[in-house]
Amino acid sequence: MAQRGVAGPEIERLIQLLSRLPGLGPRSARRAALHLVKKKETVLAPLAQAMGEAADKVRVCSVCGNIDTADPCMICTDPRRDGSTIIVIEDVADLWAMERAGVLNAKYHVLGGTLSPLDGVGPDDLTIDRLVARVAAGGVSEVILAMNATVDGETTAHFITDRLAGQGVKISRLAAGVPVGGELDYLDEGTLAAALKSRRPF
Amino acid sequence: MAQRGVAGPEIERLIQLLSRLPGLGPRSARRAALHLVKKKETVLAPLAQAMGEAADKVRVCSVCGNIDTADPCMICTDPRRDGSTIIVIEDVADLWAMERAGVLNAKYHVLGGTLSPLDGVGPDDLTIDRLVARVAAGGVSEVILAMNATVDGETTAHFITDRLAGQGVKISRLAAGVPVGGELDYLDEGTLAAALKSRRPF
């Protein structure tokens, strides 16, 4: 941080708040703040306005947990989306990643995390009940569990599978295997084992 | 960027503006935007407000070129600062770096860059005239040229030295040598040569 009061308190506060963003340390927060105040008209003012508007308008979708300016969100209300498939993800960032991949025209369900007894995250802290209710309401034929490939992700997937049992809905998981462009030499044994186990005819 | 209109236009615009900040690429801009909209009350709103205030209040000091909310800036008007020494730096970021080092209680002069014929930067694009006028106004005994140790920095230092000739002011440069904690093996030949040439009695 700029010290001994070199910059006014407004700039100090700007640096302090910017340094709390993911990916910005104290040093890059200073650089970003300096860039902002140097380009006051072209960068700082538009960004301040965009943030103000986002703060006013952004809300969490009450159906799927997505973040949008509309509730229900644009994906939930999009008539071109296939509502019979629900992709369950941990976080909105994962929803964005899925949309960038752009493979399925499905709808989503954001869990808000994974079950994690060590961190005190239980089923009531996630939106699992709401997912079960969505499936129970009918019209859903497949639920794709797209949690991260971690222990907590696995645990959560099993828990959700149990909760959806008997609803007559198909439950699937993401394939595990070698990432596109991945080199075997750099892959961990678990990934290699999964890729071998799920090998496909060529 | 989130695609196919997953997030509302307000969030898209936020991501786009954030990705223009130094140190933030498209990916980290998305992460930062998501963090912001998820923590609307505690992170987004305060940052939007801080940016708005900075946009309103920040200005360039008409004396030294520093960026502050006051003009002249806090350093120029600080009675505890020794105005007889002026440290000349290229950029406000360098001023902040000097203040973090906190060695000299001097005043500053921000050039706004270096002479660079290739990039079309001439003396009139920098605040050299204003520096000469500050020195001519009296009360200055030493000018420390603290430009970056680059070819353009050197050229600019020589140019300023010529312009200040005959004003009876002492002109000095930053020492060149081994950085604190630096290992000889990793230093370039130029630095080693400079460190040898400026060797000190032990």
Describe, in plain words, how this protein is organized in 3D.
The structure is a homodimer of 202-residue chains. The first copy, chain A, is an alpha/beta fold and 202 residues long. Chain A has two domains: 10-25 and 32-57, no CATH class; 67-175, Dna Topoisomerase Vi A Subunit, Chain: A, domain 2 (3-Layer(aba) Sandwich). Chain A is 43% helix and 12% strand. Chain A contains eight helices and six strands. Chain A has helices spanning 9-18, 26-38, 40-57, 74-77, 92-101, 128-136, 151-164, 189-197; strands spanning 59-60, 67-68, 82-89, 106-110, 142-145, 170-173. In chain A, strands 4-3-5-6 form a four-stranded parallel beta sheet. Chain A has a two-stranded antiparallel sheet with strand order 1-2. In chain A, strand 5 (142-145), helix 7 and strand 6 (170-173) form a beta-alpha-beta unit. In chain A, helix 1 (9-18) crosses helix 2. The first copy, chain A, is globular. Chains A and B meet through helix 1, helix 2, helix 3, strand 2 and helix 5 of A and helix 1, helix 2, helix 3, strand 2 and helix 5 of B.
